[in-house]
Amino acid sequence: MRKEWIMVLMSGLLLSGCAVTYEQYQILEDPDPGVRRFVSTHHLQKGLSRAEAAAALGKQVIVGYEMPDMAEKHYKPIVKENPQRVQTLHQSRHVYVVEFYFVGINQSDGAITDDELTPLVFEQDHLIGWGWDFYHKIKGEE
């Protein structure tokens, strides 16, 4: 009899489940249509102007969401401007403008670090290459 009660209790424990509640959250503000949720460099090609490259990559990117009012249960997008920074390089007789675009989060630490950026290198307003390998080659740091 004791074994039967133990089996009944064990069966009851196995058959019981956990209840999960689901609450609907909404985005508080829809970002502008030009805001990207991610940035891809696949559309880049050499010869693009700075304006064309900016149009291809987008001037703003959503890096996450925050909930400013817990009671309202609405998310607000966190938007960052692109490019993150611009640098001018003077190498011998060449002047390069390098724009660093945020392309994705590698570590959710609240900081945008170099490993989350992609450099685009322009000479006379035309894209001549991109990526860290190309950037280091231009700087003479091969």
Secondary structure: elements and pairs:
Blueprint lengths: L1 H14 L10 E2 L7 E2 L13 H8 L2 E10 L4 E8 L3 E7 L2 E9 L14 E7 L2 E5 L1 H8 L3
Parallel strand pairs: 1-4, 2-3
Antiparallel strand pairs: 3-4, 5-6, 6-7, 7-8
Q: How would you briefly describe this protein structure?
A:
The protein has helices at residues 2-15, 50-57, 132-139; strands spanning 26-27, 35-36, 60-69, 74-81, 85-91, 94-102, 117-123, 126-130. With 142 residues, the chain is an alpha/beta fold.
Describe the structure.
Strands 1-4-3-2 form a 4-stranded mixed sheet, with no helix packed on it. It has a 4-stranded antiparallel sheet with strand order 5-6-7-8, sandwiched between helices. It is elongated, with a radius of gyration of 25 Å. With 142 residues, the protein is of the alpha/beta class. A hairpin with a 4-residue loop joins β3 and β4 (74-81). It contains 3 helices and 8 strands, in the order αββαββββββα.
Q: Any descriptors?
A:
alpha/beta; 142 residues; elongated; single chain; Beta-lactamase Inhibitory Protein, Chain:B, domain 1; 3 helices
Q: Give the count of helical stretches.
A: 3
| Structural class category | alpha/beta
* Largest sheet report: 4 strands, mixed
Amount of helix: 10-25%
The whole-angstrom Rg is 25 Å
